[in-house]
Amino acid sequence: MILVNTDYIAGKELEMLGLVKGSTIQSKNVGRDITQGFKTLVGGELKAYTEMMNDARKIATDRMIQEAEALGADAIVNVRYASAAVMQGAAEVMSYGTAVRFV
Prior knowledge:
The chain is built from two helices and four strands; from the N terminus they run E-E-H-H-E-E. By secondary structure, it is of the alpha+beta class. The protein has one domain: Hypothetical protein apc22750. Chain B (Translation Initiation Factor IF3).
């Protein structure tokens, strides 16, 4: 599956199949949340949250790809990501784009 953040793929004629998306809500355990809270006092990267968001993006992307494959897509164009805090220590990540087939 080809994923691009442009609305075209050079050298390919595309048939649009429709919007596809994938999402997940991820959280860290309370112990990790407390240790990351202490980290905010001294500054620096919150590595546990970086890891959590990377995992969430992968899950959301995989779910978007599954939707596209179910439509018979060859690629997804205009891929975008969005995230939002759901509650302290939990975030939703959504990926979305347009599933296309090569003509």
